[in-house]
Amino acid sequence: MRRVAYLTGSHWRGGPVPLGELPAQDAPDFALLKPVAAARGISLEIRRWDAPDLADAGFEAAIVRSTWDYADRVSEFLDRLEALDHAGLRVLNPPSALRWNARKTYLQELGAKGAPVIPTIWADAADAALIGRAFDTFEAAELVVKPQLGAGSRDTIRLKRNGWSQEDLALAPRGAVMVQPFLPAIETAGERSLFYFGGAPAHAVRKLPAEGKWYANVAGARFERADASTGDRAAAEQVLALAPQGMLYARVDLVDGADGRPCLIELEAIEPYLFFAFAPEGARFFADALAAALG
To answer: Which residues contact 239 (CB under 8 A, 6 or more apart)?
Structure first.
């Protein structure tokens, strides 16, 4: 058996993850993936990304999976994975791709290359002048303010043109921000996640917000398997062609823009949830891509 470390974190949603276990959300995916990987001669073993003995434990590679605590220690996380890679433990996705993906300014780079990104204003901080300028620039009824560095929609706020005040900005992200027009389709049609393993298309999932919410990263959100449309597939593959190459996995999150065409919300290359419970064959595609990557 070829031993591969399946990397997770020590905390998830504010609570500890016991050593040798996974966050509750990732455990079903791992249960589906582990046996199909074993059938291909690959033994997946759960390890924390910051375990001190990773480089010397005899693993052939390490897959970055449910490392959902990385955003609180992002510099340490990225430096650690680069050090492991330099020490001879192959990290998937490659640390260079993870560093590129960690700050959402990668969307600015993709947009400059022609990818269908949501129009965005980038700033070092959120203040009233920035918000007023963004409403005028986008001619938008509503705005979304997000941190440039973060995960899980944390510290993300939504503002209405005639219904916001300075006090609302107390809930805005601290530090560098990105400001975008709110796209109503996120509440109605939802967002679509398209999965690619080893560069090849796998399954797709539609994510709808929980009742009374407007994004799908909270309890009560609804998920369903979906067939990727021709337009979604074309947009996703355009994005991936412009992104760093050599990634084992990628999740492309799309939403309909004001003109009805798909726009990129995010390209998830660090720790995307893979939704194997909705598409069990995705585990086989992932295991095949991993086997091919190992050579």
So the answer is: 110, 115, 116, 252, 264, 267
The total of structural domains in the chain comes to 3
CA distance 163 to 229: 36
Range of weakest confidence among 31-35, 133-137, 183-187? 183-187
pTM (predicted TM-score): 0.94
Q: Is residue 260 part of a domain?
A: yes
Q: Which residues are catalytic?
A: 222, 251, 268
Strand partners, 63: 6, 92
% of the chain beyond a pLDDT of 90: 83
Whichever domain contains 50, its CATH number is 3.40.50.11370
Task: Using alpha carbons, list the distances in angstroms from residue 191 to 214, 229, 252.
Answer: 11, 13, 10
Residue 151 confidence (pLDDT) above 70? no
Give, rounded to a whole angstrom, the gap between the first and last alpha carbons of the chain.
14
**Could you tell me which residues come within 8 angstroms of residue 157 by beta carbon, excluding any fewer than 6 positions away?**
144, 145, 168, 171, 172, 173
Q: Which domain holds residue 247?
A: 106-116+185-269
Q: Are 12 and 69 in contact (CB under 8 A)?
A: yes
Name the amino acid, one letter, at 141. A
What mean pLDDT do residues 21-46 have? 97
Residues 21 and 160 in one domain: no
123-128: average pLDDT: 92
Whole-number pLDDT of residue 162 = 85
3-state SS string over 207-236?
A: EECCCCCCCCCCCCCEEEEECCCHHHHHHH
Q: What is the residue whose two structure tokens read 């791992």?
A: 30
Residues 286/249, Cβ–Cβ less than 8 Å = yes
Q: Is 192 in a helix, a strand, or coil?
A: strand
Mean pLDDT of 92-121: 97
Q: Are 190 and 160 in the same domain?
A: no
